[in-house]
Write a structure and sequence with these properties.
Elements lengths: L1 H6 L2 H31 L3 H37 L3 H37 L5 H13 L1 H16 L4 H24 L4 H26 L15 H35 L2 H37 L3 H28 L1 H8 L9 H11 L3 H16 L3 H26 L3 H17 L2
Length: about 425
């Protein structure tokens, strides 16, 4: 049924796949927020320490999501071509590629964790950042693999089951966070352990569906594995650029944290890392629609139904713009209330006014992002991962860092100038 939906009415397919994806991605964002909310009880330094590790955590999630996009593209394309054995073969290829890449990334990040944090300016918060970071990195295969497995489900048009797995995982994380942080007195280490147990839980649920219940359309079993270079190429040509695209977000966050430490203080980093989590929630529906677009477009690309590709792209842009405008207005109106939730206890109270100001201004670029994101995902859906990657890097880093340095440092507007640099960079680049 999911396969029929992908190849049917592109508007219906997009909506049916987007809604569970919006819920799933919101839950992922809440994961980070739940961690931040509990960690903030340990004080502003602990919150900033976890904030400094956030870009590195984004690398793991980025590779997971990127490889998931590569899997979704390849599998949806083969389904569109009506080649079920090749789609099954691609699903087991995906899992093996994910495992190999995640092991390489884990080793590299464990070696370079301390130098990366020093370059970013973690300073007095270094202890918190490494306590949290080392545990996450040791279990990073769980973070990458759970995100990548979602791509197999998306490839066959099923976005509901990953949503159920994520909801269960988020509830588990909410329960485990306070137990590990405060009851077992593990502090920030407890937050890391809770995150990994939750990621493992997701993988176990998906393994149950694939190998015990066996009711998925795709069969990612070794009996269906036959190494093929063309399948690996299809997964990697979208998966790696998509990962780099998301890595670029981590690079941006690292550079921006260093810039804020230069023009402001570690408090400004705490505002940014907390505020950016809220921005991530606000922009989630746009990314979810884009993610659904990959599978819908790839399936129609495989079936050589090019009219549906055009319809899906235009419809994705229209829906995204409407959502972006609504979210922009709501965030602006309730900025103070949102800030008070994340800066309510201990020494973190002092960042509340700055966080409110950040949220009020940053939302200006949301509607322009709706246009840029939809177009980027179209390129992924037709297998042009490199084009999509360059579009994103130019948009998210090139322009934003340029304007942030210009306004914050050169023209001397400080932290506020850096915030406005993000807005200006996004608005200019999305309208080019």
């Amino acid at each position: 049924a999911n396969v029929d939906i992908m190849l049917g009415n592109p508007k219906q397919a997009l909506i049916k796949m987007s809604i569970p994806l919006i819920i799933s991605l919101l839950i992922t964002s809440f994961y980070n927020l739940i961690d931040a909310a509990w960690v903030s009880g340990l004080g502003a330094d602990a919150l900033a320490g976890v904030g400094f590790f956030t870009p590195i955590f984004m690398i793991l999630v980025g590779f997971g999501n990127g490889l998931g996009s590569g899997s979704a593209f390849a599998i949806s394309k083969y389904i569109g071509e009506k080649n079920k054995p090749k789609a099954d073969n691609a699903s087991i290829h995906s899992i093996l590629i994910d495992i190999v890449i995640s092991l390489i990334i884990t080793v590299l990040l464990l070696i370079f964790l301390n130098p990366i944090l020093e370059i970013m300016g973690a300073g007095q918060t270094m202890g918190y950042a490494t306590d949290y970071g080392n545990i996450i990195l040791v279990g990073s295969i769980l973070v990458i693999l759970s995100n990548a497995l979602y791509g197999i489900f998306r490839g066959e048009g099923d976005t509901k089951r990953p949503m159920y797995a994520m909801i269960a995982s988020a509830i588990l994380n909410m329960i485990l966070d306070p137990i590990f942080i405060y009851t077992f007195n593990l502090g920030v280490k407890g937050a890391a352990v809770a995150t990994l147990i939750s990621a493992l839980f997701v993988i176990l649920i998906m393994i149950y569906w694939f190998y015990i219940k066996k009711d998925t359309y795709l069969k990612p079993v070794f009996a269906n594995f036959n190494f093929r270079k063309d399948i690996s190429t299809d997964i990697v040509k979208v998966g790696i650029p998509a990962s780099v695209q998301l890595l670029n977000n981590a690079f941006f966050a690292a550079v921006f944290s260093a810039l804020l430490t230069y023009v402001g203080s570690t408090d400004s980093v705490a505002v940014y890392s907390t505020g950016w989590r809220i921005v991530t929630i606000g922009t989630t529906p746009l990314l979810a629609i884009g993610t659904a677009l990959i599978s819908v477009i790839a399936a129609n690309y495989g079936a050589k139904n090019y009219k549906n590709i055009q319809i899906a792209h235009r419809y994705a842009m229209k829906v995204s713009i409407v959502i972006a405008v609504v979210v922009m207005i709501l965030t602006n109106v309730f900025a103070g209330d949102i800030a008070s939730v994340f800066a309510s206890s201990g020494s973190s109270v002092r960042i509340a006014p700055e966080l409110t100001a950040f949220l009020s201004w940053i939302v200006i670029y949301y509607p322009t992002m709706a246009v840029g994101v939809a177009s980027t995902y179209v390129f992924q859906g037709i297998g042009k991962g490199i084009t999509a990657m360059f579009q994103t890097i130019l948009r998210e880093t090139g322009f934003t860092i340029f304007f942030a340095v210009l306004l914050g440092v050169v023209l001397g507007y400080g932290v506020w100038g850096a915030w406005m640099g993000i807005v200006l960079g996004e608005v200019v680049s999305n309208n080019i």
